[in-house]
Design brief:
The chain contains three helices and 16 strands. By secondary structure, the chain is mainly beta. The strands form three sheets. Strands 1, 5, 6, 7, 8, 9 and 16 form a seven-stranded antiparallel sheet that branches. Strands 2, 3, 4, 14 and 15 form a five-stranded antiparallel sheet that branches. A four-stranded antiparallel sheet has the order 12-11-10-13, with no helix packed on it.
Length: 259
């Protein structure tokens, strides 16, 4: 009985050993696997959302970093930079664009005939005034007005013809004025203005451009010119006159950017 039991146990063990040889190891190349006996694929790495590390779409909105809009204004009523023209006539009220506008051009009334001063001469002058608003980078114009002086007329100064406006480009202001006193040394004609650009915070460029005023006559005798000190602009203009315009006194001041 013991022998039969031992033989039975031995048979069972042998059967298990033989049967175990039929199993193939899992995950070994060429030894079969799930499905078709092919290789068992290694588990894939977890996918990371690309949006986490992707760069932002385009540059930041420029408006976020832009300076707030502001108005370019004068810092005062200005100091005299000199006088263009002769000594005749008397002091008249200065031409003033006001604290929120700046002179950017002129018009000239020129007598149609020779005056008693010996030639055609200016009967009057108008300052063209402009608002300058900046976005912190580039100034732009919003409104234009005028301030004018005309003489009492007569003595050949009237009738007179008004010239077209000669103005600085948008973003520039007047920084100087030029004219001629003619052969008699007592006329006011052949006028020009000097313009300089303004930056986004009210700074005035050192370089300027001269523009001739069409319709203001022609002369090469006794030239006068006045240019504002570097970094400042023409903000008001003193006037001397009688029957017509005798002289203009540019008054200059620095500019600033006001919210």
């Amino acid at each position: 009985m013991r022998r039969r039991g031992a033989a039975l146990v031995a048979a069972v063990i042998l059967g298990m050993a033989v049967g175990g040889c039929a199993f193939e190891p899992r995950g070994v190349p060429g030894q079969g696997g799930p499905g078709n006996g092919g290789d068992v694929d290694a588990p894939s790495a977890p996918t990371i959302d690309a949006a986490v590390d992707a760069p932002p779409d385009g540059p930041p909105d420029a408006a976020i970093d832009a300076a707030p809009p502001c108005r370019v204004e004068r810092t005062g009523s200005g100091s005299s930079a000199g006088r263009v023209g002769g000594d005749g006539g008397g002091d008249r009220s200065p031409l003033d664009c006001g604290p929120t506008q700046l002179p950017v051009g002129v018009k000239i009334w020129l007598s149609d005939n020779a005056t008693t001063n010996g030639g055609r001469s200016a009967y009057g002058i108008a300052l063209v005034c402009r608002d300058l608003v900046t976005d912190g980078v580039t100034p732009s114009a919003t409104m234009t007005t005028e301030q004018a002086f005309t003489g009492s007329g007569g003595f050949g100064w009237t009738p007179a013809t008004l010239s077209p406006a000669t103005t600085c480009p948008v973003g520039a202001v007047m920084v100087g004025l030029a004219a001629h006193r003619g052969v008699s040394n007592s006329l006011f004609l052949d006028v020009a203005i000097d313009c300089a650009t303004v930056d986004g915070v009210g700074g005035v460029a050192a370089a300027s451009t001269r523009l001739s005023v069409g319709g203001s006559g022609s002369s090469s005798a006794n030239a006068d010119q006045v240019v504002c000190p570097t970094g400042s602009a023409l903000v008001t203009a003193g006037i001397r006159g009688g029957a017509g315009l005798d002289s203009v006194e540019p008054r200059c001041a620095a500019l600033r950017c006001q919210p």
